[in-house]
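Regression check, S-adenosylmethionine case 262:
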Amino acid sequence: MKIDIVTIFPEFFRGPLDHGIIRRAREAGLAAIEVHDLRAFAHDRHKTVDDRPFGGGEGMVLKPEPIFECIEALGVVSREGRSDAGQSVVLLSAQGKRFDQSLADELAGLERMVLICGRYEGVDERVGQYLADRELSIGDYVLSGGELGAAVIVDCVTRLIPGAVGNQASTQQESFTTFSQARDGNGPSSTCTSGGLLDYPHYTRPADFRGMGVPEVLASGNHEEIRRWRRRTALEKTLRNRPDLLDRAALSVEDRKLLGER
Ligand code: SAM
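Current build output:
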């Protein structure tokens, strides 16, 4: 997959792209990630990329010309043909559709994704109207720039590219992953896909840490008991922290029974 990031702060990405799964995916040729300095597409000697807003008001707005010219220079196909061509131009915006695991899954299936990072009061609206085919927000809060959002999206998407994570089955069993997204590799019978809920609790050695123990069932060797415990605790945690997910999840008869057993 090819990922292009357009920003006025290219150095920002030195850290996020150079560690762990993203670094390995880049080195393995699974993800080719390039960061483009928007100021390289400014025409004046001050490399101006922003201007005052029409109509007055606070702050500055990123101008359309450098952004359009940058995307054109990348050779991305026109807005109309993009989904056929497996490409997407994404504008990071607090006003965008909320990014989530199912969108990450959809983006991971693309051949190419371009991420445009806004700054200041935002980006000239024509970028969202005529250039980008998606506007995505990473949550209901306002960041000072799109760079953190782009790093979040690159991270989530890259780890879903087949081969990026050593044990691909682990990405199928995590929080928010729906049954339809969990394509294969269910792992041992004691593990379970979250089915759109939160993941089950994980423990590792030591079994006794400062008097804090590990649930006995996990050392029982009884895979069916462990699976049931994991499912019940995932349901409980979801009920406690994210009841909204329970409303949307397709709960089985067993799930309802496990919730009732609390
Ligand atoms: N005036 C805008 C508003 O009220 O919606 C906020 C602009 S924000 C200070 C500057 C840039 O940060 C935005 O253009 C966008 O690229 C990025 N940004 C801010 N919050 C974001 C979020 N929740 N998700 C993604 N990008 C965000």
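Comparison notes: Strands lie at 2-7, 32-37, 50-51, 61-62, 87-98, 112-116, 134-137, 208-209, 212-213. The longest strand covers residues 87-98. No diff flagged against the previous build.
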